[in-house]
Amino acid sequence: MRTMGWSGGLVAAGLLLAACGGGPGGGGGKISNDKIVLAVLNDQSGIYADTSGRKTVEAVEMAVADFKAKYGDKAVTTNIEVLSADHQNKPEIANSKAQELYDRKHADVILDVPTSSAAFAVATIAKNKKKVFIDVGAASTEMEGKQCNKYTFHYGYNSYMLAHGTGAEVTKDGAKNWYIIYPDYAFGQDMQKTFSAAIKEAGGTVVKTDPTPFPNDNFSTFLLKAPDLDPKPQVIGTMHAGGDLINLVKQYNEYKLKDKGVGLAVGLLVITDIHSLGADALAGTRYTDMWYWNLDPTARAWSDKFQAKAGQRPTANMAGNYSAALQYLEAVQRGGTDKSDDVVKQLEGHTFNDVFARNATIRAKDHLLLHDAYLGQVKPASEVKEDWDYVKVLKTIPAAEAFQPQPDPACNL
Question: pTM for the complete prediction?
Answer without folding.
Answer: 0.91
